[in-house]
Amino acid sequence: MDSDTYKTITSPAEGLYKEKGSKFVSVAIPISEVESVKTIIDKIRKEHHEARHHCYAYMIGHDRTTWRVNDDGEPSGTAGRPIMGQINSFGLTNLIIVVSRYFGGTLLGVSGLINAYRKSAASALQNSEIIERTLQEYYEITYPYAVMNDVMKILKDESIEQSKQSFALECRILINFRVSAKEKILHRLSRIDGLESRYIETH
User: pTM above the 0.85 mark?
Assistant: First the structure.
């Protein structure tokens, strides 16, 4: 992948794996911030209130540096890490996978649990729609009305997206473009007299 692209899922998807009477119900959900994790876990605990464990793993950020695994009472390393292993295997980010286990009365052992959580997580991802997104930089530019044509030419040449336009004596536009084009675009814009650019965010 290019440095300014990442793969994620478009919408929630479910999966299922059964082993020796135990049932592992999985769900993969797109997320963009850690703050949403608790709400998701609480909702799943209510939906699957008879399940004994709700184990999960999440990965957030295009650079894949914000993550966590949780075994929720299963033997250490038998649930959260196998789930994360599937997130890594698919090369994904900005998602959480939760696997709820209904105990079937037969102990599966460490290797059995690892296999079950891995296959359940994989099942949800196999049912997901995976897309590649491009990381975008957002800037607000302001400039005199007199240089409008110069600005519009650059926006058209570089296929820059525009929103929140305000045209008066001073013009103001919110623009966004892929990160890999940042240096070239900002250099071209900086050569226009009276134009100022202000960084907003990257996502």
Answer: no
